[in-house]
Structures are given as C-alpha cells and as structure tokens.
Design brief:
Blueprint (H helix, E strand, L loop, with lengths): L24 H17 L3 H23 L4 H5 L6 H9 L2 H27 L1
Length: 121
C-alpha cells in the first residue's frame, strides 16, 4: 500500500482493462467502488445488488454526459492497446491533461454516492 491507500485492486484498470482501450478505468473502478460501498452498507445481498445497479448506471451516464464518451480510446484520442499507441501516450501529457480529470471526476462523483449511502442506513 502507498500512502495508506490500497491500489492493488485497480492496477489493471488504466487505459481500460489491461490497456484494451475500452471502458475507462475510472468508470470501471467506480462501478467496483459502488459495489463495495453497497456490499458494506446493505446486509442483504440481493438488496445490495439492486442498490449498486441503481447507483452504477447514473454514475456511468453522468461520466458519459460530462465527457461525451466512456471508452478510453475516444477519451484520449489514442489507441494505447498497441505498442506504438502506448509509447505515444507515455511521451504525451495525456495522463495529466485528461486522465487525471477523469479520475478526479469519478472520485468526486463517488463521494456523493458514499454520502447518499450513509443516509440509506
């Protein structure tokens, strides 16, 4: 763990799962975070599943509305699933210019989910 945060569950999400360029890792990790929050706060599994789905779809749609896309390739205008594309990404400022914005948006949006679930108890 670094800085008290366990990054291990999200290590494969950057650039879409395994750099496949599909759904942005911020969105995928956000869906997992919603599942964890619901699972921790709602004892009944079926109820937790239903609540997680109710929260995940708006999270997904809000991200898409904010940025126009949810897939990595479109968000960064680059296919990082190829060696050439990944090299171009590494040489660019895309991580700081775009990806950090997507992660920050997801974290901020997830905070509101966290707060909403505190009220559901």
């Amino acid at each position: 763990m670094r800085g008290g945060v366990d990054h291990r569950p999200a290590l494969a999400f950057g650039g879409g799962i395994g750099h496949a360029g599909d759904v942005c890792g911020a969105v995928t990790a956000g869906a997992i975070a919603i599942g964890l929050l619901c699972g921790d706060r709602i004892p009944d599994l079926q109820e937790a599943k239903l609540r997680a789905r109710e929260l995940a779809l708006p999270f997904y749609r809000d991200f898409e509305a904010e940025f126009g896309q949810v897939d990595c390739r479109s968000l960064i205008d680059l296919d990082i699933s190829t060696d050439e594309g990944f090299a171009r990404y590494r040489e660019s400022t895309l991580k700081t210019d775009r990806c950090t914005r997507y992660v920050k948006y997801a974290v901020d949006r997830l905070w509101s989910v966290h707060e909403e679930l505190k009220c559901d108890r």
